User: Which sequence fits this backbone?
């Protein structure tokens, strides 16, 4: 599967990532900052991470990271949506991430697309209905089913908001408004 799990130098689970080319995975920037990432696992494949980069505006809230793998994955990369504007308000969307020792896909009717807020143009807000959030969702895939009933990546899961122990909003960094190969990445040097 294109959604992988990230592990640290001491083989501790960190979070999730999404394979977008055989050698490139996207994740949340905070997974890079706090994770001490060593490897990514896609199905039975364990691949070393060669380089890690955060978005140049990471410290201004752009919670996105990119991982360059040491060898290509045999898994099929996930397609990235060209224009998020084709998704209708309250259309069903899904999360795919790792947590509690397994990969999980949200069920139908759990998440709905809310839209892009004008004051946060790089962020997708999505509303949870009857769900919980697990450690490990960060860096995972926010997806939409296209007309062929295939999952298409629309965002990288970054955070959620809680009120009275209930999740009332989730957010993801949208992936349709940048080019993977643009000069927007800064190398991450572990502390």
Assistant:
């Amino acid at each position: 599967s294109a959604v992988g799990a990230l592990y640290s130098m001491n083989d501790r689970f960190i979070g999730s990532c999404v394979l977008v080319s055989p050698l490139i995975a996207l994740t949340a920037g905070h997974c890079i900052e706090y994770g001490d990432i060593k490897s990514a696992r896609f199905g039975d494949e364990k691949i070393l991470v060669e380089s890690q980069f955060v978005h140049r505006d990471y410290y201004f809230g752009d919670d996105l990271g990119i991982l360059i793998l040491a060898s290509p994955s045999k898994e099929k990369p996930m397609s990235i949506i060209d224009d998020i504007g084709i998704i209708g308000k309250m259309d069903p969307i899904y999360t795919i991430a790792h947590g509690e020792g397994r990969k999980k896909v949200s069920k139908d009717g759990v998440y709905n697309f809310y839209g892009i807020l004008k004051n946060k143009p790089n962020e997708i807000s999505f509303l949870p209905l009857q769900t919980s959030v697990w450690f490990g969702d960060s860096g995972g895939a926010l997806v939409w089913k296209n007309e062929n009933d295939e999952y298409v990546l629309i965002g990288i899961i970054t955070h959620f908001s809680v009120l009275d122990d209930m999740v009332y909003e989730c957010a993801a960094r949208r992936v349709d408004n940048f080019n993977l190969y643009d000069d927007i990445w800064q190398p991450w040097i572990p502390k």
About this structure: The chain is about 5% helix and 50% strand.
